[in-house]
Fold this sequence. Notes:
alpha+beta, 6 helices
Amino acid sequence: MSDSTPPDAPEAAQPYALTVNGEDVHVDSSWIGESLLHVLRDRLSFAGTKNACDQGECGSCTVIMDGQPVVSCCVMAADAVGAELITIEALDGTSDVQQAFLSAGAVQCGFCTPGLILATHDLLDRDPEADDLTIREALSGNLCRCTGYGRILQAVRTVRDDRLNAGGTATSQGGSSIGGTGR
Ligand code: FES
Ligand code: FES
């Protein structure tokens, strides 16, 4: 019996599909072992997912995968096949978290912002009454090199308080939850 494929040869590129923001998108010419970050950005043009460290340290590449935030630079695209992926493009700029970041001046270069926005939506969907320590812990994997975090924390508190004052949670206020975009 003979096998002509060298044992350390990369797998041949083969088409596969990912489900991104509610739509199936096909990846035609990518080695399936590529990182999800590179496939989203470079193959599928979801450029809102940022690459700052490419090694799981900064959170700029955060996406939601089956309801959980993940750093997409550390996920193989192969492992995302069959999962529901949510990227920053699922939001149209008018979510309460996006508006709060703008109002608080929590954006400078904006490189960290998509990851922080998704992480904040995830946090306040799961824990609408998150206290300051919980907020800091939840966002501790998202590094910002510009703002010093004060305005970011202020923005998150504003969303939390506004939602609580409105008597609802993220999932009860249409359009503000990343989990129910249906796009
Ligand atoms: S680019 Fe993925 S964690 Fe920094
Ligand atoms: S605003 Fe520049 S890295 Fe956060």
